[in-house]
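Attaching the record inline, Q. Sequence:
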Amino acid sequence: MNKEQLEQHRAAALDLFYAVKNGYQGELSTDLLTLYRNIKENKFLLAVMGEVKAGKSTFINALLGEELLPSDARQSTSAIIEVFKADKKFIKATFANGIVKEVQDNLSTPDSDDTVKFLKKIASVQDEHRDLPVVQLNDFIIEHYDSKKNESVYTENDLDKWIKNSELENIHKIETEDFNRLIKEYIHENKDGSTIPTKIEVGYPHEFEFDQFRLVDTPGIGAIGGIEEKTKRFVEKVDATIYIHRGAPSARSLQHAWNNEITKKAKKHMFLVLSHRGSDTEDNNVAKLEETIKTFSQIRRDRIFSVDSLIELALNEFYPLVDWDSIKVFRKNNKQIRKVTASAWEDAEGDVGELFDLLEKESNMKKLKKQLIEFSENAVGIQLSNFVEEIAEHFEVVISEKNPKLKSLKNKFKNPQTFSKKVADEKNKIESYKANMRGFSRKIKRTYDVSDAQSIMFSKFSDIFEIFKAELEGKTFSASDSSGVVDKAIETLNSDYFDNLEKFIENLKTSINKTIENFNAEQTDLSSIDVPQIVMSNIWESAKIDALEDNTRREDSDGFWNKIGRWIPFTDIGTHEVSYKTFNITTYWNSIKKRVITDVDSNKSKITESINNLLEESINSYDAQIIKKLEDRKLFLLDLADNEYNNEKIQGDIKSLSHDISKLENNHSECQKILGEL
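Structure, as predicted:
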């Protein structure tokens, strides 16, 4: 489908959105509003996410074929950067004071790379501020910014209260007095907003087809100083995701991101990229890729890749060089490139073509680029399809709400004498239905309340803790075992216990939502439950102290008379008592076991409370949905009963409502037509 056809569908979809917005009684879904904003702004956001230092910026640079984004080890991206298609390279930054700066390379000085320098300056946490939660401080300045005074307006009392009440990340554990002083200095120095970018856009002549397609570099999951929260807020807006991961696919950080950070919409169109391929053997790379495909079966197999961005960047540097000697000189002057290309360089044995083939195989970026280009060609269509699907679902809700009203009107028009009785009957049914729904809400709690011994989930929940404690009680060690053997054993048991708890909680949330969905209510975004970690380092330290036992023995004393004295029988003359300590492995294990069981019991109470709060939250949400729908219907029927409409008035209402429903159904059909064409 060409750009002109897509633009026609875009315009039609926006008209349909406005139509459903005007007719929808409740709040539009978050997904629909997000898609509307992106389509309205002509953006398809493909976010590059991942843990800190996973290689996100380097990956985008490799994708673009140029080191555009800051990515050296000392830099930490603190801003969301959007890369969009442009005829030439330039940076457009909007600052908190409203000033927009554009920087492009000076053609008269091609080696200066002004855009990269400018981007590095504004998009990174500067060295002098790395001890501070810069993003949190910037948010304060932006929140208090007064455009009329061209600066952030606050009193010292405001600032003191904010510092006291905010959970500011003291990244390097600076003394509180010094930390607060540095915070104030930063806010005072930057309150004019001229150094705080609120939006960074990078124009670049990339290979992707549509102008709407935007690559987005995010700060990273696990980033400190308030940066991670910025990433989480942005993820809600994205249309698709490339998740960069360094390490094993079974890593807890990746599993946590999948379960908690990446939205359902972003998962639908997600690429998973294992980075730093060149730092491992080919066999290990293949094994990791196969494990990832198996672990994340929800992701399309052709969207999981293992790549090395640094090798790809090296290739881009080598391509313009015409011969082996030129490449050799270039490698000599670049330590990093020399390191990542060492293996291929040795194997190529002076053959440039062979070198390129080996590096292309090691980087493995060619297949990924091809897949992303194909994806970009369909991206706008995918986004429009998702948008129109959401609109169609909202039309269905509106139609389903209006049809019962039409049916009630038709019943009264046909049988005016008996309509009052029907209204009364309907009211009784509504009250009965409401009572049933409330009873069902209570049933949910009885089913999933892990503190209630009669609930289904009680034994499953309790078994996790009891099995763990039983495994602890059943574990024994011989006197010859070292503390390291004990530590390794408890670490394994602790890890299994933690994994079992996380799986239980995830299954519990899924089951609750499925139950709610089966009873004709919308699923709820349930709050997350954090499983407390057992801090083994503190336990080990205390247990080692407990395991030391005091002992004494007698030893010979030095000196002539002491030697003589030792010949005197039945006396201790010539000797002295020496104290020493021994390490009792059984005492050590019992001390660990006792402390771990104490923590487990404490954790069980905390998690039980969190689960009960979760149940209360889901019940309240469920009740609110059902009660509102029933009250709306009840009020409508009461209104009909209270007003003695004559047949002519009712006929007019039927005609008007039928016209509305017909229009809605036509709009819904138009949605289906657009979806078919897309």
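The first strand starts at residue 44 and ends at 50. DSSP finds 24 helices and 13 strands in the chain.

More tomorrow.
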